[in-house]
Structure formats: C-alpha cells, structure tokens
Write a structure and sequence with these properties.
The chain is mainly alpha-helical and 158 residues long.
C-alpha cells in the first residue's frame, strides 16, 4: 500500500494525529533554521549592502501573500474534499500542509536574508509573525467532524 493510499484511508483521528506531527515538525524546522541563522549572523555580521529595504520588503510582502494565498488554497482543497458536511481526512491534511509550508518558506527566506545582510530585528519580526500564524493554526480537526457532534480528541476540542 502506497503512502497516498494510506493517507486516503485514514480515519479523522489518524489524520488529526498526522496533521499535528506535521505542524510541530514545520514549526520546529523554522525555529531550528532561525536559530542557526542567528548564530551565523552574530558570529560574522554581514556587511551593509545598501539594499536593506529589499531584504526586509521582499519577505514582508511574501508573508502577506503566503498568508492570504495559502489560506485561499487551503480552503479550496477543503472544498474539493467536502463530503457529507465534512472535509475528508486527506484533504484536511493536504490543505494544512500547503498553508503551513507557504508560511514556513517565507520564514526561511527571511532567516537566510538576515545572514546575507537584512537587519536582524525586522527579520526576526517577520519570522515571528510567520511563526505566530503557524502556531495559531494548530490542527484541531474541526472541519473533519460534523458541526453538531460534541467531540473531544486528546486535550483539545475538535
């Protein structure tokens, strides 16, 4: 059985566990890369480039675009997986990964630009906003369960 088949046959509870693992891995990935880039920047500060606005403006614009477009794409994936008033588990996990990966990419770009020459504080603010958006999108599984179903999974409402 391929990975695609296993994901398609997951129960909502299994998909929620998978989504939470992916969420944590992507968040930790951003924190790790950011920590490494901070250490590199402090060890050998970059020389002023004269185009610092570019190294801050581009990631800031990308963050706004990633948040908006990522959300719309996630909703479209959910819509395509809509069956009997719920989102199927495969669409739920896929939509979440798309949204989180878009935000993660911007955070990594901002961290890399920090090493190249972007000012550290504005770079960390952009990364912080991206991380905050990722954190508040903790997978709760609500789209996979009927709205009238009173349900708790683990310590979180679903």
């Amino acid at each position: 059985m391929s990975h695609h088949d296993r994901l398609a046959n997951q129960t909502p509870e299994q998909a929620l566990a998978t989504a939470r693992i992916v969420w944590a891995a992507l968040l930790l990935g951003v924190l790790t890369v950011t920590g490494i880039m901070i250490a590199m920047t402090l060890q050998s500060p970059p020389q002023p480039t004269g185009i610092d606005w570019f190294f801050i403006g581009l990631p800031a614009a990308l963050l706004v675009m990633a948040a908006g477009i990522g959300h719309v794409v996630r909703q479209q994936v959910y819509k395509a997986g809509w069956v009997n008033h719920v989102v199927n588990p495969k669409a739920y996990v896929t939509g979440l990964i798309i949204y989180l990966a878009a935000l993660e990419g911007v955070c990594v770009i901002a961290a890399i630009f920090m090493v190249i020459g972007a000012p550290m504080i504005p770079s960390l603010l952009i990364i912080g906003v991206g991380l905050a958006l990722m954190a508040i999108n903790f997978p709760n599984g609500k789209p996979m369960f009927p709205p009238d179903r009173d349900r708790r999974i683990g310590n979180f409402d679903a």
